[in-house]
Amino acid sequence: MAVIFQMGILVLIVLALCMCLKPQYKVKNKRDLGVRLASPIYADQKGTKLLIAPKLQLQGKPDYIFQTWFLKKYIPLEIKSGTLKEDVPHLGDIYQLAAYFLIIEEVYDKRPPYGKLVYANKTFTIKNTYKIRKQLKYTLTQMRNMLDDSSRVQPETSYIKCRNCVCHKTVCEFSEEEN
Question: Most buried residue, 40, 70, 149, 160, by CB count within 10 Å?
Fold first, then answer.
């Protein structure tokens, strides 16, 4: 009897590990716009209001928010213009979608179960998990701390590093200096 009980515990542990380690997204190798059995209730168009979550100090405009017909769940959809060679979405895009999860939850008082990232050649369905929300909140805290004057690190300019930087001659205060 004890052996059966121990085997049962072992099976439960293995199942729990599989649930924790399984990917938090699914990928389709095609562009898949829209959500099945849902209607768009929000679209980022000229004049569309900004969604503001004051408690989280977040705001944003997802490309689309769909509401499912039967369970009335909100599903954000973000469209990206680029293509991907790999079957992994960009981390920044995942965080952007996770921010929309939090904003939608505060604005509409409903937690989205998942969202979609749509690239030109692939579509990812990203689950709204505790882990992704925790990672986003941690990243937001780090970003806010970086903006605090007391912890601001002074960058070191270098021609080699700065010449191909995306901020060169745009928002960088050092791009006008001769390196």
Answer: 40
